[in-house]
Write a structure and sequence with these properties.
Elements: E1 14-17, H1 30-38, E2 43-45, E3 48-50, E4 56-58, H2 70-73, H3 87-91, H4 111-120, E5 124-128, H5 138-148, H6 154-159, E6 161-165, H7 168-177, E7 182-186, H8 194-197, E8 203-205, H9 213-220, E9 233-234, H10 240-249, E10 253-256, H11 259-267
Parallel strand pairs: 1-2, 1-10, 2-5, 5-6, 6-7, 7-8, 9-10
Antiparallel strand pairs: 3-4
Helix pairs in contact: 10-11
Bound molecules: SN-glycerol-3-phosphate and calcium ion.
SN-glycerol-3-phosphate binds next to strand 5.
Organism: Streptomyces longisporoflavus
InterPro entries: GP_PDE_dom, PLC-like_Pdiesterase_TIM-brl
Keywords: Signal
Length: about 270
């Protein structure tokens, strides 16, 4: 049976649906996480930002232009930053038509709505604070929403949640506020710097183009803040050859827009 594993010591990587199953449904919408759930994927990834009036919403870009009809609806409000629109305004945008007419009417979820949907779907989450430098205090605010939606109890923290960011400061803040939460730093620090990151980050989550078997081994040689082996989830791998390559390095997770393709490549099913 096909297997990407090059060493018996490599566990199959966890497959994480990037922004939901975003090759098949509009990213960061209910449709995208529902699609991942329908395809049998327990783990999804998202991006969290803040509106003008302080609501946390699920959006990758720091403008609403690419993934909603904001330009059409508000032609005079370029560059359509998330931070320049109220939650009420954003709630009426169409976040699905750009992807396909069958997704018309998909909305930009608030973080609260999104967490409830992930719960409903019995899914787990790699949660990303996107551009946290634009949103002072977003870490404490995000954690408060997670607490209110039941995501900071022992079971969720232990089994179902990773919080990551490209901002080391943001990851440090999360680790300081809630040391029990598993964290990830997005980037590829020099090997010599990895021990510093391992003080506050359980994962080093690097783009697949920047890693090698040696780099993965250097990560695995260290322990994270919870005294467990430091991990690596790599992104964004959207084809079988790429998935087999990084699985061969022994990565712990693969973040992908095409989770079905990756699953087949690494496990043959
Ligand atoms: O989860 C990793 C990945 O999402 C980081 O890049 O730009 O897609 O948020 P980006
Ligand atoms: Ca992301």
């Amino acid at each position: 049976r096909p297997s990407a594993q090059t060493s018996a010591s490599h566990k199959r990587p966890l497959v994480v649906a990037h922004r939901g199953a975003s090759a098949y449904a509009p990213e960061n919408t209910f449709a995208a996480i529902d699609k991942a759930a329908d395809m049998g994927f327990r783990w999804v990834e998202n991006d969290v930002q803040r509106t003008k009036d302080g609501e946390l919403v699920i959006m990758h870009d720091d403008t609403l232009k690419r993934t909603t009809d904001v330009e059409e609806r508000y032609p005079d409000r370029a560059p359509w930053k998330v931070a320049d629109f109220t939650a009420k305004e954003i709630a009426t945008l169409d976040a699905g038509s750009w992807f396909g007419p069958e997704y018309a009417g998909q909305r930009v979820p608030t973080l609260k709505q999104y967490m409830n949907r992930v719960s409903r779907n019995h899914q787990s989450l790699v949660f990303e604070f996107k551009k946290p430098e634009l949103y002072p205090g977003i870490e404490a605010q995000g954690l408060a929403v997670l607490r209110k939606t039941g995501w900071l109890d022992r079971h969720h923290v232990k089994n179902k949640l990773v919080i990551q960011s490209f901002s080391a400061d943001s990851v440090k803040t999360v680790h300081k506020l809630r040391p029990d939460i598993k964290t990830g730093f997005l980037g590829t620090p020099a090997v010599a710097d990895l021990p510093e990151y391992a003080k506050f980050s359980d994962q080093i989550n690097s783009t697949h183009t920047s890693i090698s078997g040696e780099y993965v081994a250097a990560i695995h040689a260290l322990k994270g803040p919870h005294r467990k082996r430091l991990e690596i989830f790599t992104w964004t791998v959207n084809n079988a050859a790429g998935a087999q390559r990084v699985a061969g390095f022994g990565v712990d997770g693969i973040i992908t827009n095409t989770p079905d393709v990756v699953r087949k490549a690494v496990s043959g099913r």
